[in-house]
Design a protein that fits this description.
Protein name: Flavin reductase
Helix content: 40-55%
Pfam families: FCD, Flavin_Reduct, GntR
Strand order of the largest sheet: 3-2-6-9-10-5-4
Radius of gyration: 25 Å
Shape: elongated
Strand content: 15-25%
Number of helices: 13
Structural class: alpha+beta
Largest sheet: 7 strands, antiparallel
Order of helices and strands: HEEEEEHEHEEEEEEHHHEEHHEEHHHHH
Number of strands: 16
InterPro entries: Flavin_Rdtase-like_dom, GntR_C, NADH-dep_flavin_reductase, Split_barrel_FMN-bd, TF_FadR/GntR_C, Tscrpt_reg_HTH_GntR, WH-like_DNA-bd_sf, WH_DNA-bd_sf
CATH architecture of the largest domain: Up-down Bundle
CATH topology of the largest domain: Four Helix Bundle (Hemerythrin (Met), subunit A)
Family: Belongs to the non-flavoprotein flavin reductase family.
Keywords: DNA-binding, Oxidoreductase, Transcription, Transcription regulation
């Protein structure tokens, strides 16, 4: 099992976010961990998996004790602080001693103190089986970790907030490289800061905003280099896929390719988009299906992480005007696959990639160099 593919798949398992703390003498240790769960109710036991390369794992082994600090939904920054290497992870954090004398994060949603009953080594991690000695909990909602991002359980509401925040960014309500303060976004959307923070983490994973150590969240500018690299990456993947699938596709698969192509082409009439977002979804569905024909989950996952839809939305979505040349280039690609003609399919892929890059260059130039 490829490690990158495994991480992608297991990222679909939502989990709570905790900070594991302990001490050895006068030195305090802490690290963010999501592989933590209750193990037994009788006797009460907790299981925590810690990476052996992190000092906290060694400290837990030495002290024989650890505390599980369950984070609340507004404590994403605290999770990041304890996840980042630092000589003082506890800076600016309110702490109080627990029943076992362990440093507990005062503002955490819940605290569970454990004594290590058993240790098991598994790959790069040590699994600590802890006998619970004390446990307290307050009110609030937990912070969760899902597909590489931090969020909350209120997914339906938060997805709607994220959608509105994304539309603000894509419609250029904020300028490229402009700071996007959490408080400003929450006020603009009419939601609490926890929901706005969830939206920011999603926008960050979409590469629409980036985290700057000094400025906070910043609108990620789309420039020619970013656009070219994204389209070139898609092009490289598709050229490799074509080498694999030419001659191996079934008639049914070719029929499905043509069906998806026709659905996309219908949304571009003359030199204008009939429905840009519909076209974008149909375009992505066509190319995603093409990549999936290689039957390689890692290729499909890599394709999905390119952020191609974001680049196209931020560039092509600026104007309803386009060109039928894009449709014709993709028709040449599909016709080449259908004819089992590798060179013809490759020519169509090259043509489409170059057209896309050139069109984005024109749009970015008209906007002053970045959008």
């Amino acid at each position: 099992m490829d490690a990158a593919h495994f991480r992608h798949v297991v990222g679909h398992l939502a989990s709570g976010v905790t900070v594991i703390t302990t001490d050895t003498g006068d030195i305090r240790y802490g690290m963010t961990a999501s592989s933590v769960t209750s193990l037994s109710a009788d006797p009460p036991m907790m299981l925590a998996c810690l990476n052996n390369s992190v000092p906290t794992a060694g400290a837990v082994t030495s002290s024989g004790r650890y505390a599980v600090n369950v984070l609340g939904d507004g404590q994403g920054e605290l999770a990041r602080q304890f996840a980042s290497p630092s000589t003082d992870k506890f800076r600016g954090v309110a702490v109080h001693p627990g029943t076992l004398g362990l440093p507990l994060l005062s503002d955490a949603l819940a605290h569970i103190e454990c004594e290590v009953a058993e240790r098991v080594t598994g790959g790069t991690h040590t699994i600590f089986l802890g006998r619970v000695r004390s446990a307290t909990a307050g009110n609030g909602q937990p912070l969760t970790y899902f597909r590489g991002g931090l969020g909350r359980f209120a997914f339906a509401r938060d997805d709607e907030v994220y959608g509105r925040a994304r539309e603000l960014v894509l419609s250029r309500a904020y300028a490229a490289d402009e700071t996007l303060p959490l408080e400003d976004l929450a006020e603009r959307l009419g939601v609490d800061q926890a929901a706005a923070f969830y939206a920011l983490t999603r926008l960050s994973s979409d590469a629409l905003v980036r985290r700057d150590a000094d400025r906070g969240y910043v609108i990620a500018p789309l420039d020619v280099r970013t656009s070219d690299e994204t389209f070139d990456a898609r092009h490289a993947i598709e050229l490799g896929v074509l080498s694999i699938i030419i001659g191996a596709t079934t008639d049914d698969e070719i029929a499905e390719l043509r069906r998806r192509f026709d659905a996309m082409a219908a949304l571009l009439v003359g030199e204008r988009f009939v429905d840009f977002h519909g076209y974008l979804d149909a375009n992505y569905a066509l190319h995603e299906y093409l990549v999936s024909l290689a039957r390689n989950p890692l290729l499909t996952a890599t394709f999905g992480r390119l952020g191609i839809k974001n680049v196209m939305t931020r560039s092509f979505g600026v104007t309803p005007e386009t060109s039928q040349k894009f449709v014709e280039a993709q028709r040449h690609l599909i016709d080449g696959v259908a004819a089992r003609d590798l060179e013809a399919a490759r020519r169509g892929a090259v043509e489409y990639c170059e057209l896309a890059k050139q069109r984005v260059r024109e749009i970015i130039a008209a906007a002053g160099g970045s959008i």
